[in-house]
UniProtKB/TrEMBL annotation:
<feature type="binding site">
    <location>
        <position position="149"/>
    </location>
    <ligand>
        <name>Mg(2+)</name>
    </ligand>
</feature>
<protein>
    <submittedName>
        <fullName>CoA ester lyase</fullName>
    </submittedName>
</protein>
<dbReference type="GO" id="GO:0000287">
    <property type="term" value="F:magnesium ion binding"/>
</dbReference>
<keyword id="KW-0479">Metal-binding</keyword>
<dbReference type="Pfam" id="PF03328">
    <property type="entry name" value="HpcH_HpaI"/>
</dbReference>
<feature type="binding site">
    <location>
        <position position="124"/>
    </location>
    <ligand>
        <name>Mg(2+)</name>
    </ligand>
</feature>
<dbReference type="InterPro" id="IPR005000">
    <property type="entry name" value="Aldolase/citrate-lyase_domain"/>
</dbReference>
<dbReference type="InterPro" id="IPR040442">
    <property type="entry name" value="Pyrv_kinase-like_dom_sf"/>
</dbReference>
<dbReference type="GO" id="GO:0006107">
    <property type="term" value="P:oxaloacetate metabolic process"/>
</dbReference>
<feature type="binding site">
    <location>
        <position position="124"/>
    </location>
    <ligand>
        <name>substrate</name>
    </ligand>
</feature>
<dbReference type="GO" id="GO:0016829">
    <property type="term" value="F:lyase activity"/>
</dbReference>
<dbReference type="InterPro" id="IPR011206">
    <property type="entry name" value="Citrate_lyase_beta/mcl1/mcl2"/>
</dbReference>
<feature type="binding site">
    <location>
        <position position="71"/>
    </location>
    <ligand>
        <name>substrate</name>
    </ligand>
</feature>
<keyword id="KW-0460">Magnesium</keyword>
<keyword id="KW-0456">Lyase</keyword>
<dbReference type="InterPro" id="IPR015813">
    <property type="entry name" value="Pyrv/PenolPyrv_kinase-like_dom"/>
</dbReference>
<feature type="domain" description="HpcH/HpaI aldolase/citrate lyase">
    <location>
        <begin position="9"/>
        <end position="219"/>
    </location>
</feature>
């Protein structure tokens, strides 16, 4: 369990233990061990059994190790209960990533089944998008989108051609997270691992909407994601000036002031500046 900001989260199939070490060393802030989409039905038991091996790999990295989430199978699937039971035997620091979250009750049910573990809710259907704030305010640690299912349900093309059709859903999740005082969400995976230009373009659009980073399905995507979402030195310098000046103004009893460049600032802008400084620390 960690409160450090996450910029890049890398998926790793739970049934491929030979990849565990590479995933942990790839440079992501978090590793998502996947029991769901990356694992075929015939290998679910094998994948679940391999979680202990992943935990051992993770423990062997005493410092600078990524945080971990385990993406379980969805509520209502025949694997869900066994997945949660397996998670309950893992290190307490491991979170749960819940796919196809449909309601606040889904988050609360998982929280009750694996107490003291944070639940990250994936929103993957049009109904869940409309319930984004309800889900975000249910006790979830974060929300994020599963856009493959959304594209299918909404009839949106894959790849760059479908980006405009996701604008509403993406914006709604950012707003819901902010309204529930959760961290900004991570973008969904970019499925075409060879299309790094498309990934970069999509990341830039997501950052402009308020996203804080992205999930990845291949280590080669990590550098692109981190480069786009890492604030520039000029952005960090300006954000730090805001943080410092707000602290100074508060000490003086002032509620507003003007930066040297003429920009009017008040304490309401502090949160955005703090977010930039925190994001820079993950670069």
């Amino acid at each position: 369990m960690s409160d450090r900001p996450t910029m890049v989260a890398l998926y790793a199939p739970a049934d491929r233990p030979e990849r565990f070490g590479k995933a942990l060393d790839a440079g992501a802030d978090a590793v998502i061990v996947d029991l769901e989409d990356a694992v075929t039905a015939s290998r679910k038991d094998e994948a679940r059994a391999a979680l202990d091996a992943f935990a051992e790999e993770w423990r062997s990295r005493a410092s600078a190790r990524p945080t971990v989430q385990v993406r379980v199978n969805a509520i209502g699937s025949r694997w869900h209960d066994d997945d949660l039971a397996a998670v309950g035997r893992l290190p307490a620091e491991f979170d749960v990533r819940l796919p196809k979250t449909q309601s606040a009750a889904d988050v609360q049910a998982v929280s009750a089944a694996v107490p003291a573990r944070r639940v990250h809710a994936l929103i993957e259907t049009p109904l869940a998008v409309e319930r984004a704030y309800e889900i975000a305010s249910s006790g979830a640690a974060s929300i994020g989108a599963g856009e493959a299912d959304l594209r299918s349900a909404l009839g949106i093309p894959t790849g760059t051609a479908g980006e405009p059709g996701l604008l509403y859903s993406r914006s709604r999740l950012v707003n819901a997270a902010a309204a529930a005082e959760l961290p900004p969400p991570l973008m969904a995976v970019w499925a075409d691992v060879a299309d790094l230009d498309g990934l970069e373009q999509s990341c830039r659009a997501g950052r402009a909407l308020g996203y804080a980073g992205r999930t990845a399905v291949h280590p080669r995507q990590i550098d692109v994601i981190r480069r786009v979402f890492t604030p520039t030195p000029a952005e960090v310098e300006r954000a730090q000036r805001i943080v410092d000046r707000v602290a100074s103004a508060a000490a003086d009893g002032s509620g507003a002031f003007v930066l040297d460049d003429g920009t009017f600032i008040d304490v309401a802008m502090l949160r955005g500046a703090e977010r930039i400084v925190a994001a820079a620390s993950r670069s």
